[in-house]
Task: structure prediction
Amino acid sequence: MGESLFDKIWSLHRLAEDEGGKTLLYIDRVVVDDVRAPQVLKNLERRGLAIRRPDLAVVVMDHSVPSFPHLAAGSSAFIDAAREAARRHGLRLLDVGDAEQGISHVVAPEIGFVLPGATYLCVDSHSPTVGGMGALGLACGSSELEHVLATQAMWMRKPRQMRISLEGTLGIGVFAKDVILHLIGRLGLETARGVALEFSGSVVAAMPVEARLTLCNMAVELGVRTCLIAPDEKTFSWLAQRRLAPRGDLWTRARDDWRHLVSDPDVVFDIDLNFDCTALEPQITWGTSPAQVAAISGRVPTAAAQAGLDEASWQRSLGYIDLAPGAPLAGAKIDRVFIGSCTNARLSDLETAAQVLVGRKVADHVKAVVVPGSRAVARQAEQQGLGDVFRQAGFLWGEPGCSMCAGGGGEKVAAGERIVSTTNRNFENRQGAGVRTHLASPASAAAAAVMGQISDPRPLLRGR
Result:
């Protein structure tokens, strides 16, 4: 029987196995964010442990970095502590103002810190994002991170494997974010729980690398342990531009090796599903979970059973989001829009939103914010004139970081406000106490900003 892409990466990194069935995996790259760095590195010092490979780890300023410095009260303590901890341990620091600073899962692929076939670890649930370029992204807890920094290895039980083949073609105004939201709504939170998921199919093959990163980022909301997409010629062309990518003969050898990082034709997955995406519409969440989602032209479900919820959960979601059963989603008035996060803050995301915004204005009652995922994204966007498009439309342009995804750096939404957000989670109170979050693509978010209500982006994109 053949091997999957996951099998091949797993085998390349397997160091040992214990009697309980766990495998000791070698970890190629480690990212430590600004929130965890001070305590994790302090604990290593307290235990008398050195970092085994400082050259394979980096500290990234993202969660605490203020997108708008005047709102930064309290965030400087985390930043100062992370900065000092990185200095003491000789770790590379992507500091505030550094040309390569940004959100961990944006900058790691962007600079070539992580490469196809590599294992990548971070104390952040969305570490599988890097699977979009064929790397094995793993999330861990703080104590596990300490172990990995000291040993460059991690114990892990090999998960079941699942493949989702996405076939057909995506229509205008439909993007990777819509695809993954639809899948989360169809499959719920249990079907893929704990699996190593691989995406394949014609839709995936047609996606640019940045869209694949979005797909793998939000696959976490399916409950997966990790997520992968086989690298291909698009991946290699994209990687060739990265600062830390191999050069010369090393590049040729690496690329030849990466071409073997595909699942064998005769591999058998524990779960194997197919979805045709041709008729897919733009999607938006209506409740307090990414699984509570519908087409943007659709309506709030009319009953708990229709929503796949028990009565208590159904009533709680509707009560919090303040929408009536059967209400149309399009037309619901909004207060804010946020375009950013490790899900949708790359250059292509800003380009898509700008297509909707050019020559248009944000509705008078809407406060709209865009935060590029990295300084490199911000620079490129400014060079292309995208920053001007956003500002002229009425968006606030923030400094790179996690920003309003979870209210970092003081950026929270006012209680009771309704926001269309390109982030990955719409849990109760995530973006502020009582804030009602609707997850959507950058195009749908931009359309909502212009129209002042949840809106289908397709009419605003036609002819552009």
